[in-house]
Amino acid sequence: MSAVMMTRKVRKWEKLPGKNTFCCDGRVMMARQKGVFYLTLFLIVGTCSLFFAFECPYLAIHLSPAIPVFAILLFFFVMAMLLRTSFSDPGVLPRALPEEATFIEMEIEATNGNVPAGQRPPPRIRNVQINGQIVKLKYCYTCKIFRPPRASHCSICDNCVDRFDHHCPWVGNCVGKRNYRYFYLFTLSLSLLTIYIFTFNIVHVVMRSVNSGFVKTLQDTPGTVLEVLVCFFTLWSVVGLTGFHTYLISLNQTTNEDIKGSWSGKNRVQNPYSHKNIINNCCEVLCGPAYPSVLDRRGLMRDDLSVPTSAAEPATNSNPVPQTTKTTAPLIPNEHTPDDAKPSMADAAIAHAEKRSPSPREDKLPTLPKSSPTPTKVPPLASPETDAEASIIAKDKAL
Amino acid sequence: MATEFHNLQELRHSASLANKVFLQRDYSDGTTCRFQTKFPSELESRIERPLFEDTVKRLNTYYAEAEKMGGQSYLEGCLACATAYLIFLCMETRYEKVLKKIGRYIQEQNEKIYAPRGLLITDPIERGMRVIEISIYEDRGSSGSCSGSSSTSGSSAR
């Protein structure tokens, strides 16, 4: 078999599993569906442009030049917060590498003991005690980790996110530990901007109407009508959302926990993460340390691919191609494991079924036959759990 | 990271990877980053318990320092908010500074204590801050003492 082994350097973001899109060579990270995000951008930029075009010249002369200045500052702040929320890593937890996954499997096996054939094994749960409260850590079949407390798997982005709040289509990204404060500041500043524009629209119409009459005012500044409409509908939703998140922050809860009713107080269950003090809770969420991303998106790694020099033959594999596709996540058939930065230590083969032709790795035997034991142990009903709890449907609350 | 690879290359010449141990997170204090100091049985023959516990405790103090909610972190947060977080484009956050310190500490520990004993600690940030991965190497020349040889113990347990 004549094949040429080529090693090239790629950025790690190109090999990250999950359904994110990356831009600017890994600097920007978003969800796949961005349509609603573009709508958000359009609405904000469009409405503010109309405001600057129609209202600001009149108000600057007749009231104060500080009005447009403040509007510009507020607009820039809103855009900065929106872009920060949308483009940053929400706190994605990288998936377990094969050795870690096997280690965890062994621990689970040791805890569960022998399960008689034909019986469903018990669900994979680890109990930890946090501030005197027992919290259950669930096992994520896609990421092959026990999720840290407050983490959840987002089915839209196909990632486990730390301190998962919710997936917001308006910002085109998940809201998690790293970008929650930007999201909150975005909703807060957008509420202020909406109220500001709405108020000054009314002021402007009133002032102009005194001089020229109501109908003529509307004819002179047609943009006002549009702005008032947009602001009116935005006000109700965004201000309500800001109020809701202020409530959550004061209790140190996430949207996910609130919807599931995790700390609703029944069975004497209380939120173990709350400081029991509103100021402390707010300070922790809004002024806490800026957590770094644990996804090294722009790091370099080697990507070995073989270029077959003989035309007809596909690259020979010492590892069967399906090795990565038959993992314990039947819902995600094209999942592939990320390449290890130190291939000498990696014992698992790397086949990128999605993007590249499979690469033969002569020195890597399938030492982790994770295919053989795990499908028999994974109960078919257990996997949908990861998706069901990530979607924001209040099934648990109804129970 | 580059230096770690260098250590690894040296180890690779004369040693082969035998096993990996993963130290899990300790969540008893909440979601702050702490690792369990429980001494794994696989390391019993390789390193003295006080040395190991010292390393893990030191790492825990570093992480606690990074995540500490105090005057400095509030000031940093408020200042950053006032500049619409644009200041983060040019300034390094306190957490990042501590992470660099941790990286240097792990490298130093590897060189001085762990590599001579055929062990290697991986910086937790490379594993998503979920685990501290300790790789156990065996001398290629030695026979019989390898546990599971070059494969992780996954296949041998099955």
- Strand-and-helix sequence of chain B, N→C? HEHHHEEH
Strand content of chain A: 5-15%
Helix coverage percent of residues of chain A? Answer: 40-55%
- Rounded Rg of chain B: 19 Å
Lateral arrangement of strands in the main beta sheet of chain A: 4-9-8
SS elements, strand count of chain B: 3
Distance between the termini of chain B: 34 Å
Mean pLDDT value of chain B: 81
Q: Count interface residues per chain for the largest interface.
A: A-B, 58 and 51 residues
Sheet bearing the most strands of chain B, described? Answer: 3 strands, antiparallel
As residue ranges, the low-confidence spans of chain A are 312-399
Summed up, the helix count of chain A is 11
Which range does the strand content of chain B fall in? 5-15%
Structural class of chain A: alpha+beta
Succession of helices and strands of chain A: EEEHHEHEEEEEEEHHHHHEHHH
Helix amount of chain B? 40-55%
Shape of chain A: globular
- Number of separate helices of chain B: 5
- Radius of gyration of chain A from CA coordinates: 26 Å
Report the principal-axis shape of chain B: elongated
Region (Disordered) (chain A): 307-399
Transmembrane segments (chain A): 36-54, 60-83, 182-203, 223-244
Keywords (chain A): Acyltransferase, Endoplasmic reticulum, Golgi apparatus, Lipoprotein, Membrane, Palmitate, Transferase, Transmembrane, Transmembrane helix
GO molecular function (chain A): protein-cysteine S-palmitoyltransferase activity
Walkthrough of the structure:
The complex is a heterodimer of chains A (399) and B (158). Chain A is 42% helix and 14% strand. Chain A is an alpha+beta fold. Chain A has a 3-stranded antiparallel sheet. A 3-stranded antiparallel sheet of chain A has the order 5-6-7. In chain A, a hairpin with a 2-residue loop joins β5 (125-130) and β6 (133-140). In chain A, α1 runs antiparallel to α2 (66-87), α1 crosses α4 and α1 (35-62) packs across α6. Chain A is globular. Chain A starts with a strand and ends with a helix. Chain B has 158 residues and is an alpha+beta fold. Chain B has helices at 2-14, 49-66, 71-82, 94-114, 153-157, and strands at residues 15-23, 119-122, 132-139. Chain B has a 3-stranded antiparallel sheet. In chain B, α2 runs antiparallel to α4. The longest helix of chain B is centred in the middle third of the chain and has 21 residues, at 94-114. At the A-B interface, α2, α3, β5 and α8 of A face α1, β1, α3, α4 and α5 of B.
